[in-house]
Amino acid sequence: MKSKNDYREALLDKMGVSVEQGAVTIDSVKTAYLSAGSGDSVICLHGAGAGAVTWYPAINAISKSFHVLAPDIVGYGESDKPNAPYDRPYFSKWLNGFITELKISKAHIVGLSQGGAIALQFAIDYPEKVNKLVLVDSAGLGAKVSFWPFVGMVWMNSFPSSMANRFNSPYILHKPENRDPNHSFYSVAVIKHSGGKNAFKQGRGSAVSKIPEESLQQIKNETLIIWGKDDKLFSLEHGERAAKIIPNARFHLIQDAGHLPLMDQPEIFNKILVDFLDNK
User: Fold this and answer.
1) How far apart are CA 269 and CA 27, in angstroms?
2) What is each CA distance from 270 to 55, 217, 263, 265, in whole angstroms?
3) Number of folded domains in the chain?
4) Which domain covers residue 232, as residue numbers?
5) What stretch of H or E contains 43?
6) Which helix (H) or strand (E) is 51 found in, with range?
7) What pLDDT, in 10s, does the model give residues 79-129?
8) Rounded-to-integer distance, Cα 265 and Cα 260, Å
9) CATH code of the domain containing 161
10) Are the C-beta atoms of 46 and 70 separated by less than 8 Å?
11) pTM flag (> 0.90)
């Protein structure tokens, strides 16, 4: 029977690029991370769930032009899962500690789903440390999870299983088969592991709660908002609205994609992302 590490290794192999695995400890909390490529730093923040390996469809493409770093956000993946508030201020402080420990003074920040909410909070708290900002089907913009996806989230995070994962998949992907099965298996294994339920139970959704408009208006960084047209978790209207509120933001819709456009349409997603980051 395959282990959590087997699923993770399979996803690392799928990236098709040499990936360094590292870890740093800040305030006694270990953060594991993946690193590839060279150049300006790009920090990729995954959503609630598996961890850094969620970026398996994109790391290769980004690493051709940049030094990409994908941390397992505290509470997820191979990082520590302490008892903590798991709200945006907590995650923002964690991210600041992570990049400070790695001696990164400024980086492009790319956030997916809950990772987008963390990226937004970090840009508000530490604007001088953010170059460009990319939000992918981002939380924190006011979207409310509808009934059945909410049931699926509670099920997955309370009683993780392959059945819960199969129930959830149609709500996060345009076509569930577009996701590597190892990512599904790893997601379940992470939540089953010691402390794997802490972020969901102790955070109680606070990390994805709506960010006030006046806070979004403070963000002056050049911003790209990417959204899957068929996102059943967070409606695209919230991304379109945010693009009008954040001063230097633009909106890009990806057809035939759900909440995880990097998995539904990897080639299109990667081109949009890298072109935006690469444009001086």
Assistant:
1) 35
2) 11, 27, 10, 9
3) 1
4) 4-278
5) strand 41-45
6) none
7) 999 999 999 999 999 999 999 999 999 999 999 999 999 999 999 999 999
8) 9
9) 3.40.50.1820
10) yes
11) yes
